[in-house]
Amino acid sequence: FLRKFRNHPPSPFPSLPxxxxxxxxxxxxxxxxxxxxxxxxxxxxxxxxxxxxxxxSSPSAAEECFTQNDIAFANRPFLLFGKHLGNNYTSLVxxxxxxxxxxxxxxxxxxxxxxxxxxxxxxxRLDEVRLLLRKLFDNRDRTVDMKSALFExxxxxxMRMIAGKRYYGDNMGEIEQAKRFRQxxxxxxxxxxxxxxDFMPLLKIFKKMEKRLINLHQRREEFMQELVExxxxxxxDGKSSLVTEKKKTMMEVLLSLQEKEPETYKDETIRSxxxxxxxxxxxxxxxxxxxxxxxxxxxxxxxxxxxxxLKLENFPWQAGIFTYxxxxxxxxxxxxxxxxxxxxxxxxxxxSPSAAEECFTKNDIIFANRPRLLLAKHLAYNYTYLSxxxxxxxxxxxxxxxxxxxxxxxxxxxxxxxxxxxxxxxxRKLLGHQDEPVDLRRAFFELTFxxxMRMIAGKRYYGCENxxxxxxxxxxREIQVETLELAxxxxxGDFIPWLKSSKLERRLMECGKKRDEFMQDLIExxxxxxxxxxxGEGKKxxxxxLLSLQExxxxxxTDEIIKGLMLVLLMAGTETSITTMEWALSLLLNHPEVLKKxxxxxxxxVEHERLLDESDLAQLPYLRxxxxxxxxxxxxVPLLVPHESxxxxxxxxxxxxxxxxxxxxxxxxxxxxxxxxxxxxxxxERFEGLEGARDGFKLLPFGTGRRGCPGEGLGLxxxxxxxxxxxxxxxxxxxxxxxxxxxxxxxxxxPKAQPLKAKxxxxxxxxxxxxQL
Length: 773
Ligand code: HEM
Hints:
Blueprint: H1 2-6, H2 29-40, E1 43-48, E2 51-56, H3 59-66, H4 80-84, H5 99-112, H6 115-120, H7 122-138, H8 146-163, H9 175-191, H10 208-236, H11 250-260, H12 267-274, H13 276-294, E3 298-302, E4 307-311, H14 324-334, E5 337-342, E6 345-350, H15 353-360, H16 374-379, H17 393-406, H18 409-414, H19 416-431, E7 438-439, H20 440-457, H21 470-487, H22 502-532, H23 542-552, H24 559-572, H25 574-590, H26 592-605, H27 621-633, E8 643-644, E9 649-651, E10 654-656, E11 661-664, H28 666-670, H29 712-729, E12 730-733, E13 757-762, H30 767-771
Parallel strand pairs: 6-11
Antiparallel strand pairs: 1-2, 3-4, 5-6, 7-13, 8-11, 9-10, 12-13
This protein binds protoporphyrin IX containing FE (HEM).
Residues 386-387, 399, 407, 568-569, 572-573, 576-577, 580, 636-637, 640-641, 643, 701-703, 707-711, 714-715, 719 line the site of protoporphyrin IX containing FE.
């Protein structure tokens, strides 16, 4: 009744003697107050012990406080912290509203924090951010305590702006001074918490807290005064600032002003102004405390539509800047169309079939470009490879040659003997290692590279039999190992230009040069061979086909184009096929019932007295389902190859600027439980009745649209024939009781963390046929 009579804001019941409403409060305070406001209204009167507190939780009430009542509320309460660390309520933050406060506010706005002053010290901030990035880069793959790293960054920035000193990390000047400063800061943040004596005066009799504040205050004042003296004597000696006259530290600015107006700029004013940045920092850090404590290694990452925390150990420094898993986690919380800044590069990440559809239908031409990444500069002939060429005439020409001359159904048919031959080599090898653990990743690797090199140049570079030129093979293998290693390396410089690693660039250049020389040698060999035997039997290899076309259309079929196409086959066509076969066989070993069903299908379709060949694949729908299910769960290119927009467009209503990199997270789409029933289960049957390896925009292992994979036919033939033959001819088992480890490793494609090893023995029904290989 009294409250109504006095027109006071509502106040929750009960307000207890001595403690008032403190019993209702929990940490974090803002959440707790929000809950109370939800219940009792947006303007509340609470008692924190003996202190009256008005809590405001609506825009209109906040407006009233900071417009109509702004002057009335411009005061600060007298709290213990302000008494001892706010120089007895004389600092800018704790001073009562009045002349002293007005003076300090004017100085800080004009002399320290104006846009102009901040601009002059921009280089300092930039430098500290670079040092942090360098530190993160050096610690990639390790857990980094981001809270401390960001804290140190902020304190270094502040101290460099104030007094030109770094007190954290490397390149510190005075070690002892830095130690003292760090100790003072640590204690300041520690004591900055709530002091119950501020609300319950009775508790003030326990003076412990107050003593600590007084002691800290003294040490802080001494420290700051020493800095003031240091700068004063420097200036007296004529040793001015860090870099140029313009880029003065705050200390210098204030000391110069002191010379002109000693009354206004006293030492104590300067000391107190020096502490302003740390107060702001304290609030920033305390504001985030709850979140960061829960997820201590959090990496705050600002994006266009939200703020996210990523665990740094998950952050994909190592496998290129992005991994499908991290991006999926973020998309799960924030939506299927996200706009990021990776360093300076805008990146659109798409994680839903409808958004992918919009990118590859309505916006297909716009997104048909590729970003210019360092890897592509050196290993893709300055972006002239088919896979990395910008969308335009050159790319169209390459795509036409690849589709018609190399990867057309007709050409693939002509070269089917090579693939069959290599599968037979593999089976002979397996026959020699019955019941022994076999490294299948290595076996698939050798098979695929031999297939490609035989298609390209008629050469086998892996396996002992029929090896024509040992030295050439060794050179090839060496180059290949280096290429794969470099292809998986991160180049932060693609995203943050000043972090460009000249060492990585040099290695890429050297590797690119070696590959170029190797391919040129092969072209010359074939040129010589074709000259010496112009009517030679069947121009079968890819080099021969392209060299013959060069004779008639030399401007289209240059040596550069031929080398580029050879390398595309080796780069784009190998790892993808190898990983698919490895995942598929791993899944089968963990699901013997599916393996059995596939064996039965093959036995019912292919007669016993012959080996399966590529023409049988169309009659083996269950084998096809197994391959599709493998693609679904473990897509070899989980984010597709990055695209880039050549003009502004919209995706799901969001504006996407020109020059934005597009990543389509097909791994996330293909494993989304909202889209797939039992998404985590290996269930090939789900694809029964599906033609091809695409299911709308839900299953896209080869991408789609203009830049979709042109090697789909070849990839499916290699995978289908190899897998089908291994199922037809051998009984497979795991090495021990344990299931095959299905963890994913990092790399440019999606490799298994552990290479697949398994045992096999020839099936009784196939023994005779196998012994004739
Ligand atoms: C299992 C096997 C394979 C899979 C899963 C696969 C998957 C892909 C994917 C997802 C893309 C990116 C599409 C995009 O950017 O939207 C791609 C591009 C490409 N793939 Fe494949 N691929 C396979 C085999 C092959 C083979 C055997 C070749 C043989 C030459 C090949 C040549 C290429 C080329 C040249 C591109 C770039 C096309 C362009 O930028 O215009 N791929 N592949």
